[in-house]
């Protein structure tokens, strides 16, 4: 079991990056869309690819648990928090365009990347205009919406492997499928993505994005903290419809609630704990399974430790 050696680990992390980029005992609810989660022993925000590599090597050589945290949009962190090093790549957020190729660093928001493409009249990322995740997170789960997905436009990715090596991989080597990739299994950390887009007409691209934004804002409970769409679409069904037909809209456990606006969303309605939020997810899964015989698979990722007094 990892035992925190705060002073030595903190010193090593600040030597790699700087004191401004390393926080101890950081509350993670401030870094997730659900506003849930305990504390991280060390929360580090590197500013260069080399720093990412060195931090990975530090965790490997010193046997320190390591967790990569995106912008927390499709994630639930348990109330007990996360031991060891939590790395966030939000300071690696540059976006550049050359011709029809767009290169975006991992920490850039995919929404902002889609807007950058629009500014150059480039088509292909319209579907991403309402996805709240980072570029790294979008690749991690092959994010998609409204008939489009990352694998449609991804050319290649620059990653760091579990030993700290820098690799450039073509998209086909990431095994991008519906809401999945081999990135978690391989232990890759995405540093940047290269997208190949198409020249288009600015007004036409903007009209599509405006329409998708209206659909999202009118149908999704964006006024409350949530992890977004909780479940993957089961073959032949729609998760939200199954939940709605199970009379679960408005169902609450503690401060967590199945949204009245969109049944596929669970919101932090009133100061929920992560345990309450997770228990409501399980209740929805059990109820839909019992009523319709359909197993809802989570799209959202759950990480971290339970509190000692949690069941």
Automatic annotation (TrEMBL):
Gene3D superfamilies: 3.30.465.10, UDP-N-acetylenolpyruvoylglucosamine reductase, C-terminal domain (3.90.78.10), Uridine Diphospho-n-acetylenolpyruvylglucosamine Reductase, domain 2 (3.30.43.10). Its EC number is 1.3.1.98. It comes from Lentibacillus persicus. Keywords: Cell cycle, Cell division, Cell shape, Cell wall biogenesis/degradation, Cytoplasm, FAD, Flavoprotein, NADP, Oxidoreductase, Peptidoglycan synthesis. The lineage of its organism: Bacteria, Bacillati, Bacillota, Bacilli, Bacillales. Pathway: Cell wall biogenesis; peptidoglycan biosynthesis. Its cofactor is FAD. PANTHER family: UDP-N-ACETYLENOLPYRUVOYLGLUCOSAMINE REDUCTASE (PTHR21071:SF4). It is found in: Cytoplasm. InterPro entries: FAD-bd_PCMH (IPR016166), FAD-bd_PCMH-like_sf (IPR036318), FAD-bd_PCMH_sub1 (IPR016167), FAD-bd_PCMH_sub2 (IPR016169), MurB (IPR003170), MurB_C (IPR011601), MurB_C_sf (IPR036635), Oxid_FAD_bind_N (IPR006094). The active site is at 179, 229 (proton donor), 299. The keyword Transcription regulation does not apply. This is UDP-N-acetylenolpyruvoylglucosamine reductase. Cell wall formation.
């Amino acid at each position: 079991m990892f035992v925190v050696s705060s002073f030595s680990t903190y010193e090593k992390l600040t030597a790699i990056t700087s004191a401004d980029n390393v926080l101890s005992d950081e509350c993670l609810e401030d870094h997730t869309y659900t506003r849930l989660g305990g504390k991280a022993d060390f929360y580090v925000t590197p500013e260069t690819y080399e720093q990412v590599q060195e931090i990975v090597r530090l965790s490997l050589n010193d046997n320190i648990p390591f967790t990569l945290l995106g912008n927390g949009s499709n994630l639930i962190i348990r109330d007990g928090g996360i031991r060891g090093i939590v790395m966030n790549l939000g300071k690696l957020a540059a976006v550049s365009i050359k011709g029809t190729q767009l290169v975006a660093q991992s920490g850039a928001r995919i929404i902002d990347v889609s807007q950058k493409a629009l500014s150059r009249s480039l088509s292909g990322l319209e579907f991403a205009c309402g996805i709240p995740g980072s570029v790294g997170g979008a690749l991690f789960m092959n994010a998609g919406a409204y008939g489009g997905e990352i694998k449609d436009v991804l050319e290649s990715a620059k990653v760091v492997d579990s030993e700290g090596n820098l690799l450039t991989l073509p998209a086909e080597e990431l095994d991008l499928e519906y809401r999945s990739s081999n990135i978690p299994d391989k232990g890759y950390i995405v540093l940047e993505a290269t997208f190949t887009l198409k020249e288009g007409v600015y007004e036409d691209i903007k009209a599509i994005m405006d329409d998708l934004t209206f659909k999202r804002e009118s149908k999704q409970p964006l006024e409350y903290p949530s992890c977004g769409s909780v479940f993957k679409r089961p073959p032949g069904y729609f998760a939200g419809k199954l939940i709605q037909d199970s009379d679960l809209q408005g169902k609450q456990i503690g401060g967590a609630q199945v949204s009245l606006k969109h049944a596929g969303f669970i919101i932090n309605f009133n100061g929920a704990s992560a345990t309450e939020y997770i228990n409501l997810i399980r209740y929805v899964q059990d109820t839909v399974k019992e009523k319709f015989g359909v197993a809802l698979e989570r799209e959202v990722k759950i990480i971290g430790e339970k509190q000692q007094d949690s069941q």
